[in-house]
Design brief:
This protein is mainly α. The protein has one domain. 76% of the residues lie in helices and 0% in strands. It contains three helices and no strands. Helix 1 crosses helix 2, helix 1 packs across helix 3 and helix 2 crosses helix 3. The longest helix is centred in the C-terminal third of the chain and has 30 residues. The radius of gyration is 14 Å and the shape is elongated. It starts with a helix and ends in a 6-residue tail after the last helix. 40% of the residues are buried.
Length: 100
């Protein structure tokens, strides 16, 4: 498998995990399991690619553990951020107040 594809898969998995983690931690931005997973995966994939451009060591196509952990954490953070933003936008559109 190509290193680039492997990097993207790791970032997507991290993003899905990050989306579910933020949904579980902050009930007011929770989109449900499927919503958290999908939005998190999208955020992980896109955010991971952006992070690779900013931190070139994460985008070398390398399969060493340090690089993989960096991609997993970066994808997870990006997935969590996008899920939180999507949850806040959804709440704003439905007129729901945070914490209710």
């Amino acid at each position: 498998m190509s290193g680039v594809i492997l990097n993207l898969i790791i970032e997507i998995i991290g993003g899905a995990a990050g989306g579910n983690a933020i949904g579980a931690a902050l009930k007011n931005v929770n989109l449900g399991t499927a919503g958290n997973t999908i939005i998190g995966a999208i955020g992980g994939g896109i955010g991971g690619q952006i992070i690779e451009q900013v931190v070139p060591l994460l985008g070398t196509g390398s399969t060493d553990v340090g690089t993989m952990v960096g991609q997993l954490v970066g994808g997870g953070a990006a997935g969590a951020i996008l899920t939180a933003i999507a949850g806040m936008v959804k709440n704003a559109m439905t007129g729901r107040q945070p914490g209710s």
